[in-house]
Amino acid sequence: MKNPINGTGISTQLMLLLAGFALIITLLLAGVLDNLFTHQAEGDIGHQYAELAIQTTDKLDRSLFERYREVRLLAGRVGLGGLDASSDEKRRFLEEMQNTYAHYAWLGLTDNEGKVLISANRLLEGANVAARPWFGNALISIHLTDVHDAKLLSKLLKPEASEPMRFVDIAFPYHDANGRVAGVFGAHLNLDWAREIEKSVTLPLLTRKRVETLVLASDMTVIIGPKPLLGTRVALSDHGFAGGAQAGYAAERFGDGKTYLVGYSKSQGHSASPSLGWTVLVRQDIGEAYAGVAHFRRQVMATGAGIALLFAALALWLAKRVSRPLAAIAESARRIESGETDNIGEVRGGYREIGILGASLRSLIGKLKANEASMRQADRRKEGRIGKTEKIGR
């Protein structure tokens, strides 16, 4: 008779069930690890870039404060602006000051009308600078003037330069022996001082990764950074840049179509020196910035897949171990049904319950065989009695 029983074997079902359960658990654990570690790692990288930006702005502010204080003190010296020293002595003093700090591109004294009276190396002596912002600002107590081009001075300092040099100006009024304002003492600070500070902070990172530093003026124009960006205005979305936060990090899309991880910090000035409103950005292509994190994520997923396969193999072994004795009992039952045997053999390697099942089936078969024998014996006795009755009747 054809066996009407169809369906998936118990070993296959157990294997699929256990393997599926192991896969789900593994993926859940991988997801938890991803949330715990990769997100934290991404945050740590962002904070690292923000910290670099903070260090850069702090050094810029402190360095600018030193120059600010220096120019203010020199403007207040009667020996420089008064009648005690000759013009040659004042000029030599300015030149010595310039030699001590090479980023002083120009140092000079003007009168109240803006005419340059004395300057280091005689640059611009006799010229009138009344129209320059730093001169007018100094007379209304604005002593720090943001980055600007100086075409005339650039030609004097570097005649071969194709582009004008850029300077930050520091200027204070100076007084004569009677305490009256006699003119303005001004200093043009070459922007290279800021570039050196920026490189000193980010150089350790620059040697290992393609990280870029941008310094933006108060109008968000790039004054220090990759050459293609110099002089361009950077438009940043409101991820804290325009929202009032002084420092932080964000994923920001730039004009080149790429998304960067950006650490930023806004200049706040230092001590008596006011802020120029600069913003320092430390950026890297977000794919490169998070390359290590992505590698870790792939490792987690690969490890999870390996663990899932291991559990699947273990599930298959366990399913076969559980189903093998059941399959043996099922095969014995099939042979009994087909008349090939009348006994269930000893089942080995199974669990206690399977052993009990085998013993119970053997007991049941024994009882069935005993009942069958009794019924046969009863039939023989009945047939004997019928035979005797027939003989008597004859």
Automatic annotation (TrEMBL):
Protein name, UniProt field: Cache and HAMP domain-containing protein
Source species: Massilia jejuensis
One Pfam entry name: HAMP
Domain (HAMP): residue spans on this chain: 320-373
Keyword Transmembrane helix assigned: yes
Keyword Disulfide bond assigned: no
Segments crossing the lipid bilayer: 300-319
Keyword set, alphabetical order: Membrane, Transmembrane, Transmembrane helix
PROSITE patterns reported for this sequence: HAMP (PS50885)
Gene3D superfamilies linked: 6.10.340.10, PAS domain (3.30.450.20)
